[in-house]
Design a protein that fits this description.
Elements (H helix, E strand, L loop, with lengths): L4 H11 L4 H8 L5 H14 L5 E2 L8 E2 L6 H23 L1 H7 L2 E3 L4 E3 L2
Antiparallel strand pairs: 1-2, 3-4
């Protein structure tokens, strides 16, 4: 089934903060593991075009369109840092893979050791 991501984003904005379960109910998706997975996937797609905030210290998801307050600015910066941290952690998982492929680290970058 296809979902209107713009409509979903507007709904989230109108609600302020929503949970995966809220998204499931709104879309008529069963609130089980599969439904929550689908909700996360849709939220991820929305995050490609909107500032979706899902801080580890808070419950739920919100969309901040423009930072009008210090709190909104703080949340956007905090989300930015959490995203960067997740990306670094994901990339670190490639180091053992690169080693298995014969890629070595020289301190400045990676190069292929033949």
């Amino acid at each position: 089934m296809r979902y209107d991501l713009q409509e979903l984003a507007e709904w989230i904005i109108s609600r302020g903060t929503v949970t995966k379960q809220d998204v499931c109910v709104h879309l008529g998706i069963k609130c089980n593991l599969s439904g929550e997975r689908k909700a996360r996937k849709l939220l991820s797609k929305i995050a490609a075009d909107h500032s979706v905030i899902s801080l580890s210290s808070e419950k739920g998801y919100a969309i901040v369109q423009d930072a009008h307050t210090d709190l909104e600015t703080y949340k956007l910066r905090r989300q930015e840092q959490e995203n960067i941290s997740r990306a670094r952690e994901t990339l670190r998982r490639n180091i053992p893979i690169w080693k298995s492929l014969g890629v070595e680290f020289d301190g400045n970058g990676y190069y292929i050791h033949l």
